[in-house]
Amino acid sequence: LDRHIGADIKSVGEALAFGRTFAEALQKALRMTGSGFRGLACNSFRFKDIREELAAPTDLRIFAVYEALREHWSNERIHTHAGISRHFIQCMREICDTERKLSAYKLQERIAPEDILQAKKLGFSDAQIAACTGLSEEEARALRKEYGILPSVKQIDPSAGELSAKNCSLYLTYSGIADDIVPSGKGALVLGSGPFHVGSSQEYDWCCASALKTIRTAGKTSIMINCNPEAATTDPALADRLYFEELSFERVSDIYEREQPEGALVSMGGQIPNNLAWRLEKAHIPIFGTSGAHIDQAEDRNKFGELLDLLAIRQPAWTEASTREDAVLFAQKEGFPLLVRPSYVSSGAAMSVAWDMNSLRTVLKRAIDVHPGQPVVLSRYEENSKEIEIDAVADKGEILVYAISEHIENAGVHSGDATVVLPAQRIYLSTAKAIKKAARKIARALDITGPFNIQFLAKSEGIQVIECNLRASRSFPFCSNVFRIDLAEIAVRAQLGLPVSRIDSALLDFDHVGVRAAQFSHSRLKGTDAVPGVEMTSTGEVGCIGRGVRDAFLKAFLSAGFRIPHKKILLSTGPIEDKVDFITSARKLRAMGFELVASSGTARFLAHNGIDVQALAWPLEEKKPNIADLIRKGDIDLVINIPKNNRESELKNDFSVRALAIEYGIPLITNIKIAKQWTDSLEWFYARGVEIKSREEYS
What we know:
This protein is α/β, with parallel strands linked by helices. The strands form 4 sheets. A 7-stranded antiparallel beta sheet has the order 15-14-11-12-13-16-17, sandwiched between helices. The protein has a 6-stranded mixed beta sheet with strand order 1-2-5-4-3-6, sandwiched between helices. It is globular and about 85 Å long. The protein starts with 21 loop residues before the first helix and ends in an 11-residue tail after the last helix.
């Protein structure tokens, strides 16, 4: 992946921070990105060539500037290489000087109040002060409060002081003298989802917006915390009070202590607020709905694994490894492939499959880097399994409403990247019953009140639980739109203790099908591979409704940017089992009149089975006709390129073909199940066309 930034946009989201100084706003904004930065100060970035990093910027450029300041570069020298205003460089120098001053305190030496206040005015968090001085974050926070150093609540003034109009958009600062508001003393504090990024886009913001509407309808005060200027939830009209602030323990605690609401709602904003639940509850901040302790029980793989054993619910063999030695012992016992992931993360961040000992060492390092100090979970990677999800809402452990969906791809594709069908169309009745039974057991055992999502593996021998999240999943908006029932509203009503009723499953029996497809941004991120895996890479999604799977699937993929092909279709169908699996689909494509071209191995196989196809040489071969030549000439308008497996060496073999398809904007399919479904949907299209109806016309 090329990390250099320039004229082509690569970001998928943004954060907005307010402060009374540039330094304060800058450090807050860096923390808000959700990238694990402590702020500008107190990070561990080191650069081989600072001059090169400043002149040819990447997404880490601002930290290169800070590293130059730490190495005593002058403002003028930094300006010469980076072209950044001397004013901003000087502001960052003040942060650097303060970090040095705080770091000079000896471990047992008491920090002067004026030094803490100055650090807070420059945007240092309690965690940063702790990192500089050797204290724990809790100790730094307690010392600050002992000194009476507390933030002030200020209104965001859109008129630069020219008007005296009041508004509900607020922020916290340490450069204020008094608050601009009085505490509400009531209502619900809703934690948002932060900036859009891979793994968290509009879906969680939709849930939070629904929560705010439900709270208002119930006659309660709503207090929103979010820092995403693109989000619906940062519209001041949606909440009674809106804080453009960090979604951190420190800032949420500060706002709670100021506002004194009845409790906090952490289940709608995705993984970020969910991670705070247990810590907030231990700090005596009430959590609406499912308790923080039970959320922790579901997130902690060790605790959740013990619960599944107690409930007699099957799960893949797994272990929680605190050291590399533990991981190697598990691999030697269970064999490969293994799924490796850190705890308490969303979107499968740093989740990878280890195929052998060499790849295990590599993926372990990535998982540890993403969440230092937390154990890494290893589990058996079940190949050729079907993945099924249940999204549900419960009240005091009893399920009120549920939605069972299935992935078209086999397990191994992250749920955020997978193509999802709702209601599930191709699962056995016994499988659906087993899923509902397991979900009821888990809901009761964890005393769930609010939303939850459970992911299952299904094979001939039954179901196994992959994971359980006690929060709204990214499928909630999709399920709500297909069912025409707002699952988030039901969940929030249950969490607030308002009257709720169980939804009769007969009301969810209808004649239409919904398909959700992922939207990728591979063309913007040069060097990335388009093969989906266990770590999420999509940046958005589409959802469509149709008379059946073929109709809804076609609409979804056309909405995601696919086109009906009219020229040649390139096939490279990977391992022998996938070649065999695609024979019928290849015959359908020929029957529809498409001209097929293929890589040499696929061409030989298809020709042997009586399918007319033209063989092409690989791009790196010096033979003609060549795959690259036809793509560049515009003769191909669909590429089906299936890797033999997800081993790194195999992915590299076909990467040039996938990269060319992305470069020339040609629709690309890399999964055999999707290739077959696309073929079936094309057959449907040529026989019946596309059915155009409003959502309300489907009943």
